[in-house]
Design goal:
The structure holds 2 protein chains of 2 kinds.
Chain A (H helix, E strand, L loop, with lengths): L2 E5 L2 E4 L4 E8 L8 E6 L5 E7 L6 E3 L7 E6 L4 E6 L8 E8 L8 E4 L3 E6 L1
Chain B lengths: L8 E4 L5 E6 L5 H4 L2 E5 L6 E4 L13 E6 L2 E6 L8 E9 L4 E4 L3 E5 L1
Parallel strand pairs in B: 1-9
Antiparallel strand pairs in B: 2-6, 3-4, 3-7, 5-6, 7-8, 7-9
Classes of the chains: A mainly beta, B mainly beta.
Chain lengths: 121, 110
């Protein structure tokens, strides 16, 4: 059974940094692209970033480009999102999601339960 | 990054049929199709349909997806109370090298 467990969320002041992690199990982590998707309170889903299976290609939404950095450790089955220069508008539940294939553009199939990041002013 | 276009809300009666639409362009929906997701309040999204319009294992046969040009559609027949949820479409935009979501449609079953 595919399991994606996010951690690292919490309350942080504007301008601060936070690192989210996602522990993956139940599948061959190194074979699949992974992504982060967020959802602000009461709002829709927003794609944040993706990384291909080897980790050599990364993709970012314009809203986070230059501030967020996605990475993965295939030896530890872990996906990370380093978030710098956080803004109030980054407040959201952040979901770790698995892709159907190895490339960053592959469609998403499994979702984690999410971790809440709250950025205060 | 411009998103996909979905109607904000759709209301249908019990046991009726609802068709939800998702409009993009030739770089996203028109290129590789769209994934459909369902989200109930307080829960993470769940995959309903792949880009090729096939359903994952365990998804009701009452749901079917299709695409015509730059518009993807999700049809739900025999509406049940548990179908009341938010529905999102998602596609990969090859010109932006980015995933793009629709704004979501809230389906109400009367």
């Amino acid at each position: 059974e595919v399991q994606l467990v996010e951690s690292g969320g919490g309350l942080i002041q504007s301008g601060g940094s936070l690192r989210l992690s996602c522990a993956a199990s139940g599948f061959t982590f190194s074979s699949y692209a992974m992504s982060w998707v967020r959802q602000a309170p009461g709002k829709g889903l927003e794609w944040v970033s993706s990384i291909n299976s080897p980790g050599g290609s990364t993709y970012y939404a314009d809203s986070v480009k230059g501030r967020f950095s996605i990475s993965r450790d295939n030896s530890k089955n872990t996906l990370s999102l380093l978030m710098n220069s956080l803004r109030v508008e980054d407040t959201a539940v952040y979901y770790c999601v698995k892709a159907l294939g190895s490339g960053g553009g592959n469609e998403i199939d499994y979702w984690g339960q999410g971790t809440l990041v709250t950025v205060s002013s | 990054q411009a998103g996909l276009t979905q109607p904000p809300s759709v209301s249908k009666g019990l046991r009726q049929t609802a068709t939800l639409t998702c409009t993009g362009n030739s770089n996203n929906v028109g290129d590789q199709g769209a994934t459909w997701l369902q989200q109930h309040q307080g829960h993470p999204p769940k995959l309903l349909s792949y880009r090729n319009n096939n359903r994952p294992s365990g998804i009701s046969e009452r749901l079917s997806a299709s695409r015509s040009g730059d518009t993807a559609s999700l049809t739900i027949t025999g509406l049940q109370p548990e179908d009341e949820a938010d529905y999102y479409c998602l596609a990969w935009d090859s010109s932006l090298s980015a995933h793009v979501f629709g704004g979501g449609t809230r389906l109400t079953v009367l």
